[in-house]
Amino acid sequence: MSQPMDKVRELRQRTSAGIMDCKGALDECGGDIDKAIEILRTKGIAKAAKKAERATSAGLVDAYIHPGERLGVLVEVAVETDFVARNQEFRRFVRDISLHIAAADPVAIDRAGVPAELVEREKRIAAEQVAESRKPANIVEKIVQGKIEKYYADVCLLEQPFVKEPDKTVGDYLTEQIAKFGENAKIVRFARFKVGE
After folding, report:
1. What is the C-alpha separation between 55 and 104, in angstroms, rounded?
2. Cα(first)–Cα(last) distance of the chain, in Å?
3. Could you tell me how far CA 149 lies from the centroid of its own chain?
4. C-alpha span between 93 and 95 (Å, rounded)
5. Domains of the chain
6. Burial of 158 (0-12, 13-18, 19+ CB in 10 A)
7. Residue 156 CB partners (closer than 8 Å, separation 6+)
8. Strands 58-65, 165-169: parallel, antiparallel or unpaired by DSSP?
9. Residue of 62, 1, 66, 4 lying closest to 33 (CA atoms)
10. CA 74 to CA 61: how far, in whole Å?
């Protein structure tokens, strides 16, 4: 069943998906735009997972200086082609990542980048906090593990709630961009500078 072009246009505007993808999603759900958005998001995440192994040899570096010039961020985001790297939407995405880093002060991009001594320190602190609770050892271990999971969510860039849309993580936002651009993208590295730190 063919969908009216105004619905296709609205869905495309809301999701940035291709016209044929929008038509297919609307056909699949009988013209319900909200359900079509869910379908496109699900397919986009699946497509992004397939692209995750592809090489990223293009990209750009963004510099953000916060008003007052006491805080600055440099971030490198890589993609597969110069065509996407020069795209204004991709540049906006990279700027959003810079702003997020300035606001949220992550320690590392992902769990692998968090220094082991910081993780050990957090485990020690968590263990000391629950030691006096007189709970069984297996419960204490679960509580400590839960606190470490929370710590990772606080300090890993990809696990932090995205400052512009806190209901999604930075990793979710990155996955959406991979689906939108049709290319793999990676946050390669960042540095955050603050006067006095």
Report:
1. 28
2. 61
3. 17
4. 5
5. 5-51 (1.10.8.10), 58-109+156-194 (3.30.479.20), 115-155 (1.10.286)
6. buried
7. 106, 107, 108, 109, 110, 111, 113, 114
8. unpaired
9. 4
10. 7
pTM, to two decimals: 0.69
How do residues 65-81 score in pLDDT, each as one tens digit?
A: 989 989 999 999 998 88
Distance of alpha carbon 118 from alpha carbon 142, whole angstroms: 19
Q: What does the DSSP assignment read for 51-69?
A: HTTS---EEEEEEEE-TTS
Euclidean distance between CA atoms 178 and 185, whole angstroms: 6
Sign of CA dihedral 32, 35, 41, 44: negative
In angstroms, the CA 91 to CA 111 distance is 26
Q: Tens digits of per-residue pLDDT, 17-32?
A: 666 777 888 888 888 8
Q: In what order do the strands lie in the sheet with 185-194?
A: 58-65, 71-79, 185-194
Which amino acid would we find at residue 89?
E
